[in-house]
Specification:
Layout: H1 7-21, H2 25-33, E1 47-49, E2 52-54, E3 63-71, E4 74-82, E5 104-114, E6 119-130, E7 135-140, E8 151-161, E9 164-174, E10 197-203, E11 209-215, E12 218-222, E13 232-239, E14 244-253, H3 301-306, H4 310-337, H5 348-372
Parallel strand pairs: 9-14
Antiparallel strand pairs: 1-2, 3-4, 3-12, 4-5, 5-6, 7-8, 8-9, 10-11, 13-14
Biased composition (Basic and acidic residues): 196-212, 262-293
Membrane topology: Single-pass type I membrane protein; Single-pass membrane protein
Transmembrane segments: 308-328
Length: 381
Amino acid sequence: MRPPTTPLAGAAAATVLLLAGGLPSTITTAAAAAGTTAAEIMRCKEIVVDGHKYDFGELGGPHTVVTNEYDPPAYYNYTYTLDICAPLKRKGDVKKEEQCGGDARVCRLKHHYSPSDKKSTFETATTLAGGSSFHYEATKLDSSSDHKDGGVKLTFSGYKHQGRQQKVVINFVCNKTLTGTEGEVESGEDIQYEKPKLLLATRDDNDKKKEEEGDDGYPETQVLKNETATALLWNGYKRVGDDVDQLELTWNTKFACLDASGGDKDKPKDGDDKDKPKDGEKDKPKDGDKDGGGNKGGNGEEDINKSWGFFTWLVVLLFLGIAAYLIFGSWLNYNRYGARGWDLLPHGDTIRDIPYLLKDWTRRVLNTVQSSGSRGGYSAV
């Protein structure tokens, strides 16, 4: 049964949609975002740590780590999916309850595996990072000799699951031979499960030692591809406090190196005068920089994208003012006069007459233009 709606709600919604349809998408998006709590914005192409800018844009998109666990007599597999640049996208061919929320950045799926029919059954989906309370922190890895070429520690926090804080720590380690996408296992459904065997030391009736095979479980362990090196490694998902669960990953990639593109690579080294301006050329604008302001490419695109202009803000404020006036006027007419339909809108008669007024005005203009071209005075007899 559909819930009842009041004429006021319908008129208000129609008014906002009518106005929004005629405005640019950037303006309507800004107006809609004003009513929600925005998550902290992280630009993965501009991660600045200790004055050095790291570009992890090539690592954007979903990446997966698969683990399995044997807890006798049950088998489990876990699929961790993360996107450091944007929230994960929902899959249309997967049930909604078998996925994390639409704003999740790190998701953990748990499946139960049955050795008898060799099928995995979904159990839980847990969001580990994302949502409106998303927060991140980028710091430098420890200064040990292993990380002398660079490295970033990226921490996601702010999300709660069943009253417990979730925390994700990703250690980006410099590895000049790996891009960061090598050795990923796409799904946990193709994992070959093998019951581990444990040799138990026992004694027979003659007090002689002998060994028997027994079952023993194993903790959660990452599934690795043997033929290739694995860039994204699972370090563990465990409790680190009274109310905190932490997932820790290690990501080996060349983009975590200090000499990777986008960082200090473009800075001139000591004694390198190749790019230094000569005498008399310091104040000259570069090629393509007409205003001499130093904008890249000379087109000012970066400054335009950083902030809105005066007219954009004027249109936004005008749109919000008109919408507020119509909604408040509709509410007032509904409560004071019991108006319905078009009568809800303030000055409804005038609004309904606008098409006819425009038609009459257009006709007058056309008649004036046509009559001005005709010859004045008397007609010839």
